[in-house]
């Protein structure tokens, strides 16, 4: 297929007029004349008109399929359609136990995954303290099919408010060390400063204090981080995955969190929350992910939760679906539209260890494209929130599309 129109590549050249996808992969990016000449006559063309195309958006941390019950979705297909209709071409399932892995593997075998799913195998129960052992050890990480990858392992180190730690330091260090030695990327749910201290010690034991970090081990949520901890994250080059729709910043408003702060220096501790700009300015890879449905308490799928445009807009003004007022503590941490866009493309792909193939559009990358009704780099946060998804294209196939894809019969 050929896509013709304004294309933001997140690569060089920064924008293009046309894109050719062959056999699921980008074959050419360039001017309209160049690409149409290469494509020949028989290749279907999608003219996006005044709309704007981006590298397919990647939700690097969510539970669209696994926790669909929480937002009243009955089937994996409905959950994936919800993600596609919001413009996600890849979703990462961040807590996959044996049962969920069986479900995903079966869907993949039946060719019933219309988008890409990157699964992270769970090493412990998020609540209740049960650990599952190294059950991943009889397999290798990596692609199962074109659309399913068993990418990494998931450790839920503390709970949502950072008030309960699920691991002993020695057990955590052992588990991360064994995973690292076996070539598995580890994603660690880490909220509190206490949990960050523990996971940084564990990564330090596996990688050394200055890295490098070739497997892209990740710290997910990264809610409350001290200056010293930030310096250690930078030194080891750990990937960070945060939630830019404002929800991370509402921790300071919640009684569970305030209780946890204790009587000490509250101002300083609140300053350690949601350090989005500090992460970006430090040169970290910072992915913006929805964590759907967990960070939208009281909201249903019909409330339009979990959209990439809300990640970008929320990074700019600190407002979110579950938290419409900007918390004062995040005012000095806001991002630009370009940084938000990077967080759901290039850096989200990095968090999944697939930055060579996803998150940008260039010859050889996957033909995953999201078309929005406007240019996010030129929009205000509210203009970005108002943009609609015109097409979600996975491997050159329109998986969700409006009338611009009529020649594809959908
Ligand atoms: Zn999560």
Name the descriptors:
410 residues; alpha/beta; Urease, subunit C, domain 1; TIM Barrel; 2 domains; binds zinc ion
Structural account:
With 410 residues, this protein is an alpha/beta fold. It has 2 domains: 2-54 and 361-408, Urease, subunit C, domain 1 (Roll), CATH 2.30.40; 57-351, TIM Barrel, CATH 3.20.20. Helices cover 28% and strands 24% of the residues. It has helices at 32-39, 76-85, 98-109, 169-181, 193-207, 227-236, 255-261, 266-271, 276-281, 308-317, 337-343, 346-351, 381-385; strands at residues 2-8, 15-22, 25-30, 45-55, 57-62, 88-96, 116-122, 142-143, 148-156, 185-190, 218-221, 239-242, 286-288, 369-372, 389-394, 397-401. The strands form 2 sheets. Strands 5, 6, 7, 8, 9, 10, 11, 12 and 13 form a 9-stranded mixed β-sheet that branches. Strand 2 (15-22) and strand 3 (25-30) form a beta hairpin. Helix 5 packs parallel to helix 6 (227-236) and helix 10 (308-317) crosses helix 11 (337-343). The protein is globular, with a radius of gyration of 21 Å. The model has no long low-confidence stretch (mean pLDDT 93). The structure holds zinc ion. Residues 61, 63, 94, 291, 294 line the site of zinc ion.
Query: In CATH, what is the homologous superfamily of the largest domain?
Result: Metal-dependent hydrolases
The coarse overall form would be globular
Number of domains: 2
Q: Give the amount of beta strand, in percent.
A: 15-25%
Radius of gyration computed on alpha carbons: 21 Å
Helix content: 25-40%
Derived from helix and strand composition plus strand pairing, the structural class reads alpha/beta
The strand count comes to 16
What is the arithmetic mean of pLDDT? Answer: 93
Rounded to the nearest angstrom, the distance between the terminal CA atoms is 15 Å
If helices are DSSP runs of H or I spanning 4 or more residues, what is the number of helices?
Answer: 13
